[in-house]
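#structure-requests
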Amino acid sequence: MTPDFQRIGRLPPYVFEQVNKLKASARARGADIIDLGMGNPDLPVPQHIVDKLVETVKKPRTNRYSTSRGIPGLRRAMAAYYQRRFGVKLDPETEIVATLGSKEGFANLAQAITSPGDVVLVPNPSYPIHAYGFIIAGAAIRYLPSMDQSRYFQELTLAMENTRPQPSVLVVNYPSNPTAQVVDLDFYIELVAFAKKHELFLLSDLAYSEIFFGDKAPPSILEVPGAKDVAVEVNSLSKTYSMAGLRVGFAAGNRDLIAALTRIKSYLDYGAYTPIQVAASAALNGPQDCVDEARAIYKARRDCLVGSMARAGWEIPSPAASMFAWAPVPHQYAHLGSLEFSKLLLTEAEVAVSPGVGFGDHGEGYVRIALVENEQRIKQAARNVKRFLQRSNEILGESERQAAS
């Protein structure tokens, strides 16, 4: 008997897995792969957070089951962060729930609020969970082209006018993963007004709120008066404090949506390990100079990447925020598409990047480059890329011969 799992059948092959398999094979052969693919922070967790984690682990009571919605101290710390950073007051009892990272928060929120056949509006390109959390929950997805921000509201209006049934949820993500685009508060003001007019819930992904390179920090959608009537924002400690493996995030905003997510989670998990939640509280409540230091490191890496790749012959736009650069495929290889280019770059230059098509069909022609290697390694990647571009005719010729054989 061949099982027919309908939810699994709705999921396409994972594009990134093709690059990951090549990367694993190359490393097994002893290749020194410079991995700029996955957004996996390489910076250490700040010491005061580690110290609090270790201290709490040693207390026997903390090895018991935790609480799914997050321990009270953590939810209070999350509320204090929003008050301090955005001037937004949140009730830690009714407007915040701790999550196992932002990805779990999005996926379980989709389960909580989606019925089969609901239509959800998702930017394209976008982080995969933004769409696939809802697809797994049974929703239909209408994609919004998001590369040209000047047309955003025009595309949004067309989507609302030409979609049946009417969309019920709109996902936004700024600073964006993968494109690193940013918006100002005026954008959110217009968006909240649009959502109220069309009875849309807004789900905002603000995972990169603290990785920005200009003088002006990214805003929160919850700064808009009345935004909590329609909006929930999902955030994470993964990038801000390099705590990706510890899996701590949170959702904040609309009480009905938070209550729905809290109820779903109560059936599915007991929350993060209590010492991790205590350490996360220490991160949010403690000294924030570590955040400034991490931001400075990412900025230096960004400048190193853009400058060294330009000298290598690959012009990459300088991102204003996030830990990613969104780079057009070099013209010599543009006809191959982003996946084949990424595979060639890995095998011929020993540099791993993420193909843009993995973030949606509007990501074709681009690759995402993560700032997760130090400046020396980035410069080495640029030297490898320079040789790769200089050998384009040879590499493409060999690739074509292999494809024909």
